[in-house]
Structures are given as structure tokens and as C-alpha cells.
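Re: [ENG-882] Designed sequences occasionally contain unexpected residues at chain ends

Forwarding the minimal case from QA. C-alpha cells:
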């Protein structure tokens, strides 16, 4: 391993560390260019060729990979405020869940509830998981 390779590897680590502070993928692309150049320097290329490889590989990463990464990780997540967003949540049984009635406290409010299997009765005080929301009724199953 030559001195040039070690310098490019140190540059890769420094640029990747700077990316942690910046967070907009530019330094990460430069770190990728430095890593490519470190690999190329193993073949004993002259310094001017290493600099050209660094410039070309960094430019290619910035032009082609960075926009895709930016779109992929910068789009805001949609906030789901529909009742279906409660599926998978835990609920506390307030009133025994029988085939005809039952209540649970779900996400701070009281919901009517029924069990997935109508043959089972879930006692008050138990914890359940919401499997589905059917109108104003939470369909639940025991943990």
C-alpha cells in the first residue's frame, strides 16, 4: 500500500465525517470519489491521474447519485390521521369484550370494541392489539 493510498483513505474518512455534520450528501459523494481514487492509487498511477480520477468520480457521484439520494431521503412523510392509522396499536380493555359489547381505551379515547373471534371474551384490564377499525368499532385480539 502506497503513501498515496493512505492519504486518499484518510481523506475518505475525513469527508465522510464532515457529511455527518452537513447532512446533504455532498461530502459523502466527495468521500466516495476519494475511496474510488484510493482504489485506483493501488495500481501505482501518477498523482495527476489520481487527481483526475478523484474529480471525475466525485462529479459523477454528485451529478447522478446525489439527486436520487436527496429525493429518496428528503421527501416528507405523509401524516395519516385516519382511524386506519390506529391498526397495530395497543389498547386497554375498559369493559369486557363480549360478542355483543365491549369498550377499549385507544389512543386516549374510548372506542367500542369486538374481538376477532366472537367466541372469546376478553376481560376488563387486559391489553389488546387493534387488528382493524370497522367504522366506530375497534376489532381487537388479545396480546
Amino acid at each position: 500500500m502506497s503513501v498515496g493510498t493512505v492519504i486518499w483513505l484518510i481523506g475518505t474518512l475525513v469527508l465522510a465525517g464532515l457529511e455527518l455534520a452537513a447532512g446533504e450528501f455532498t461530502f459523502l459523494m466527495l468521500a466516495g470519489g476519494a475511496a474510488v481514487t484510493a482504489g485506483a492509487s493501488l495500481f501505482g498511477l501518477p498523482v495527476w491521474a489520481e487527481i483526475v480520477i478523484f474529480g471525475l468520480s466525485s462529479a459523477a457521484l454528485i451529478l447522478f447519485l446525489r439527486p436520487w439520494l436527496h429525493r429518496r431521503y428528503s421527501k416528507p412523510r405523509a401524516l395519516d390521521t385516519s382511524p386506519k392509522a390506529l391498526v397495530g396499536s395497543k389498547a386497554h380493555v375498559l369493559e369486557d369484550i363480549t360478542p355483543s359489547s365491549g369498550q377499549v381505551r385507544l389512543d386516549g379515547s374510548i372506542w367500542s370494541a369486538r374481538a376477532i373471534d366472537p367466541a372469546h371474551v376478553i376481560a376488563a384490564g387486559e391489553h389488546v392489539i387493534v387488528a382493524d377499525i370497522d367504522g366506530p368499532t375497534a376489532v381487537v385480539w388479545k396480546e
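QA comment: On inspection the terminal residues look reasonable. The chain has two domains: 3-74, 83-142. Proposing we downgrade this to a documentation issue.
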